[in-house]
Amino acid sequence: MNIIMLGAPGSGKGTVGIDLCEKFGFETFSTGAIFREEIENETELGKIVQEYISSGGLVPDDVTIKIVEKGLEKYPNGAIFDGFPRTIAQAEALKEMLAKNNNKIDVVLNLNIPDEDIIVRTASRLTCPNKKCGATFNSKFMPPKVDGICDRCGSKLIIRADDKPETIKKRLKVYHENTEPLIDFYRNEGILETIDVDIYKDSKEDNVNRAIEAIEKHK
Ligand code: AMP
Predict the structure, then answer these.
(1) Ligand 1 mean position to 203 CA, how many Å?
(2) Mapped to the 3 state alphabet, what secondary structure does the chain carry?
């Protein structure tokens, strides 16, 4: 199955996605995690993408699409796409790439959360820098069992530089301008499932259970 996690930065795409992977045996394909690793390893690609990421902008479509084209072969049985596509051009390219292998997107999980809640939540977000893990925690809403350490892989958790409130505000603007149109794009394809997230009431499990129900409808 191919599933897209859609939603603003900090909406819980990564967190819910990881639990879905554990439940269904899927794997996450996160363009953000790939880019962060390239930056960390100081590769050519890392140098190209660094400025876009640290300013809260989007990496250009041609660069991003190439990365996905290259990476897709590692996921012959499908994937959970976290953070891709982020533009209509990327969505169209993904559709074409999958169709070449008689594949398609089965369901798009749209995590709907007000901007003001995103700003509150990302201010205390902690991220595991290990690309194979990528778990996120939150010192206020979902603390790790051991302070500062990833529950899943034991790596030291970091605060992402692009989670700073000023950068998050820019990322939200970029989300509304470039990524939000994908909601209608996938609604028209009949595969959109929206999950309304209330950060004060819902536990992670509540959102994961809603996501599981939505996936079951499209199996
Ligand atoms: P994420 O980890 O998904 O929040 O991504 C972190 C940053 O990486 C984003 O703010 C963008 O700068 C960049 N990025 C990740 N995925 C994409 C994408 N599909 N298209 C363009 N830029 C991306």
Answers:
(1) 25
(2) CCEEEEECCCCCHHHHHHHHHHHHCCCEEEHHHHHHHHHHCCCHHHHHHHHHHHCCCCCCHHHHHHHHHHHHHHCCCCCEEECCCCCHHHHHHHHHHHHHCCCCCCEEEEEECCHHHHHHHHCCEEECCCCCCCCEEECCCECCCCCCECCCCCCECECCHHHCHHHHHHHHHHHHHHHCHHHHHHHHCCCEEEEECCCCCCCHHHHHHHHHHHHHHCC
The Å distance, Cα 102 to ligand 1 centre, comes to 27
- For ligand 1, mutation pick of 28, 35, 63, 166 (most atoms within 8 Å of CB): 35
pLDDT (tens digit per residue) in 113-168: 999 999 999 999 999 999 889 999 999 999 999 999 999 999 999 999 999 999 99
CA-closest residue to ligand 1 atom 5: 32
- Cβ atoms of 54 and 171 within 8 Å: the answer is no
Give the catalytic positions in this structure: 13, 86, 125, 160, 171
Measured in Å, residue 107 CA sits from the centre of ligand 1 at 20
Q: What tens digit of pLDDT does each residue of 186-218 get?
A: 999 999 999 999 999 999 999 999 999 999 999
**pLDDT attached to residue 131:** 82
